[in-house]
Description:
The structure holds two protein chains of two kinds.
Chain A: E1 2-12, E2 18-28, E3 32-36, H1 43-50, E4 58-63, E5 66-67, H2 72-77, E6 79-82, H3 94-104, H4 109-122, H5 138-150, E7 156-160, H6 168-183, E8 187-191, H7 195-201, E9 204-209, E10 212-218, H8 219-224, E11 228-235, E12 249-254, E13 257-263, H9 267-277, E14 282-287, H10 291-307
Parallel strand pairs in A: 3-8, 3-9, 6-7, 7-8
Antiparallel strand pairs in A: 1-2, 1-4, 4-5, 9-10, 11-13, 11-14, 12-13
Chain B: H1 3-20, H2 22-25, H3 27-48, E1 50-51, E2 54-55, H4 56-86, H5 90-95, H6 100-126, H7 137-161, H8 167-181, H9 194-199, H10 204-217, H11 224-248
Antiparallel strand pairs in B: 1-2
Amino acid sequence: MTALSISNLKKTYKNGFVALKGVDLEVQAGDFFALLGPNGAGKSTAIGIISSLVTASSGSVSVFGYDLVKEREQAKSCIGLVPQEVNFNQFDTVQGIVLNQAGYYGIPRKLALERTEICLKQMDLWDKRNSISRRLSGGMKRRVMIARAMVNAPKLLILDEPTAGVDIEIRRSMWKLMKEVNQQGTTIILTTHYLEEAESLCRNIAIIDQGKIVENTDMVSLLARLNVDHFVLDLAEPLAVVPVLEGCHVERTSDKVLDVSVPKAVGLNQLFSQLSAKNIKVLSLKNKSNRLEQLFMDLIDSKSSQNNPTPQIIPSPNGRE
Amino acid sequence: MNYTIALKTIIKKEVYRFLRIWPQTLLPPAITTALYFLIFGKLIGNRIGTISGASYMDYIVPGIILMSVISHSYSNVVSSFYSTKFQRNIEELLVAPVPNLVILTGYVSGGICRGLLVGVVVALISMLFADIVVLHPVITIAVAILTATLFSLAGFINAVLAESFDDISIIPNFVLTPLSYLGGVFYSVDMLPGVWQTLIMGNPIMYMINAFRYGMIEVTDVDVNLALMMICGLIVLLAVFCLLMLHKGTGIKN
């Protein structure tokens, strides 16, 4: 079943800025879907329209078969949103925020109390239930927003940069939680600037740039397009000169550290054979950057250059520019 | 979908909000009106004598009660809904399947509750200075509720259109307060000089105060039925305008 179907979605703001130029997108039920794009690409506008915070100029959105305009209440009942910025009443208690949201979804008080307890415990916030929310740390505030979005047991959970600005430990625990939520059957759409996050969590991915979807595929296929891996090698002995390794690009960042770009056609075995032949001992090896980041940059760069080709200088009739 | 639960949630949240900050919402009108009764009612009023057969203190009590209802029902909705917009927690309601009518009814109900509660507080204070009588309880309560509804709706419109905290203080300071003071709280229309007697007929608050005064002490400068019809008409007009704004997403959606 299709969890989210977007057809020819367009949005032009009052100031004339065209945020979406006809977006088509489908997300299947149960998917963990990444929506990526640079700042100002149209991600938040798309998320805003799906969650009824922004009015579309044209096009249609349906959630689990319910049209967002014609069957507004049914469509909204399926959605939970974790927005980019904290947007709850900072003077309310943690429990009050989640309980009120349950009330807005028409959940009876007794059930709302039960669900609130489950969600707050899941977010490790039960001990803070009576705390005034503005006194919470940044990470806790984000978890309050996730608990709030989960209280109506949404079929589609939209996470708009949920881990922005939180420390590594909290981020990892939130990843674990998101995976669990998805495994329980909730469809998740994630926007994030941490491409490592998308790579480790999501099965399918769409990349949006300048208001258009420039890529929409599964993560495995996308990563398979990478033909070069970048590694950092820690060496046992210092090197005076940069070694020449056939088929690879090598840079020396310090006496005992090498950055090596290895094409998939060459592979690691051949790399290590060459290093052994040159009597270079490697103590450890790590990926220089996450793989998706490279692809993301390649895609955005190539699409930008297609949309904005380098201007050519046309000679004027009299031969001068 | 059970909209009653959503409505109850909004009303409960709104009532809890103004009760939590009672020193800002309930205490000031008690002190201000006590001063009104002391200065205008006791000290000056004794020298004025009677108006339409009522002592000056009895004459001003209904006006001061309704003036408090007006200003507090308005300010409750305007400050609450604007804060909701400002803090962006309006998004909690926009994301949820809450119909616009429920959002409007919830906030307006909050304003009515505060307006009426302040009205009761002021009435209790007035009992320290005058013997309160309510000759027509149904009319008195009806006018109080309808007036609170009307000004809650007006406060909602102000909040939706406001873009800064300055915008939510302009109307109460420069429109509501002058209209209330010029709406016959402290004097009868007959006491005004020629042209002012005609001009004051264009002030809707004058009709409300007089209808409320009729309910309490059976003294009025206007036709009570006309006043009630006018209030109801304005309520319908403002409610439709509010719903249209919510439908279009004015001030709350991009």
